[in-house]
Amino acid sequence: MTRKLLFFIADGMGDYPLQELEGRTPMEAAETPNMDRLASLGTLGLCRSIPRGMDAGSDIANMSLLGFNPAKYHTGRGPIEAAAQGLACENTDLIYRLNLCTVSEFSAQGVMLDHSGGHISGEDGAFLIQRLQEKLRIDGMVISPGFQYRHLLIQKDGTLGLENDLDISPPHDLINKHLDRDLARFDRSRSLSNLVYQGARLLRDMDNPTRVNAVWPWGQGKPLALPDYQKHFGYRGAVVSAVDLIKGLGRAAGMTVPDIPGATGLLNTDYQAKCETARELLEKNDFLYLHLEAPDECGHTGNIKDKIEAIRRFDHLILGPLLESVEKYRAGCLIGCDHLTPIVKQTHTHDPVPFLFYDPLRPNRSGASEFSEQTAKEASLLIDPGHDLLPCLFQKMKAVS
Ligand SMILES: [Zn+2]
Questions:
Q1: Is 1 exposed, middle or buried (0-12, 13-18, 19+ CB in 10 A)?
Q2: Ligand 1 geometric centre to CA of 170 (Å)
Q3: I want to staple 99 with a disulfide (CB 3.0 to 4.6 A). Which of 54, 216, 219, 282 is the partner?
Q4: What is the 339 CA–ligand 1 centroid distance (Å)?
Q5: Which residues, other chains included, contact 269 with Cβ-Cβ below 8 Å and sequence gap of 6+?
């Protein structure tokens, strides 16, 4: 029988030492009795979840941690979100993420003010995108509505065109930066330049109560094709997450990925609902990937207090309750983060990420007093490439069943 494995991801949890915390990191400052106890009984190490030369995105990092080589499988952010929505696509479709955003003016002199159009509501987002769907008529381009400011754009036969290779900046990386470089790229494609300029005009002229005044297509790629998780790894897998990117990876690999009402991706997420869903999924699955978004959000906003609280809740409200399942099933337990989102950077970094592995059938007396960036580094174990981590542990667990 396959032994179960639970993988807990606190998105962006890793950080750098902070002056405000007397040289400690948020992981070190947070009260985390569960992680610290497991650190003393487990194996610690670092894992290169972002391959050299690739973007430090959550999509790439989580793909690695799930055991898939991003250099081989990653095609873009749009395709993963399409997989999350279960959107049927042709192999030659080019799938973009389409943001509703706010710019100072839609010209080379303009700057990106807000990648989310002021975090518009689901209702406002649906209203605007429906208007754009009705009025924007561009050959071969189809808008697929998503939620709030996040939508998708499908370009028919787009993988055959020059758009496939256009390197467009993600709008969240352009905040307060000029649009000139990216507008020059849109201008190389008639379809894309029509879309973005017409989009800005329509949003200006329509009855529009929001701050949204531009559309921004980016993260394009051909449809995501991941191997079936069970066939590839021999583990029947399930994913618990509030975030489309993570759900899309799971769904593309044929894993069970329920939508969880109350899972918000924020500090106020419904922890109990996530734990209950996890327990149910564990009855029928051998591998559970549980992802918590909040620490990353706090890293992006640079809020130290909230980040510490997000890590504390991860320990108390997720790990605490679910460690009972780890013991009940004698399951392997892996804890980590997909990338660092340091407070001082307010964005993701390429640093290797700390991880902690605990096997109740083979406790390890590591001597570590806590789980932190520093204790993981001191363990002198680096998994590189990062997509080797999980297959390695699956093997290790087989040896002790
Ligand atoms: Zn992330």
A1: exposed
A2: 15
A3: 216
A4: 6
A5: 242, 262, 263, 292, 293, 294
Report the separation in Å between the CA atom of 136 and the middle of ligand 1, taken as the mean of its atom positions: 33
Q: Rounded CA gap, 79 and 195, in Å? A: 19
Alpha-carbon distance of 130 to 135, in angstroms, equals 9
The encoded tokens of residue 282 equal 């564990």
Please state at what angle helix 244-252 crosses helix 77-85, rounded to 10 degrees: 80
The protein residues having their C-beta less than 5 angstroms from ligand 1 (an ion) are 11, 58, 296, 338
Tell me the two tokens of residue 256: 């069970």
Q: How far apart are CA 340 and CA 343, in angstroms?
A: 9
pLDDT digits (tens, 9 = 90+) for 48-77: 999 999 999 999 999 999 999 999 999 999
Q: Please report where in the chains the tokens 């009984």 appear, as a residue.
A: 41
Model pLDDT for residues 345-392, shown as the tens digit of each residue: 998 999 999 999 999 999 888 789 999 999 999 999 999 999 999 999
The CA 290 to ligand 1 mean position distance, Å, reads 13
Other CB atoms within 10 A of residue 96 CB: 31
Domains of the chain: 5-75+225-399 (3.40.720.10), 82-221 (no CATH)
The rounded distance, in Å, linking the Cα atoms of 186 and 341 is 30
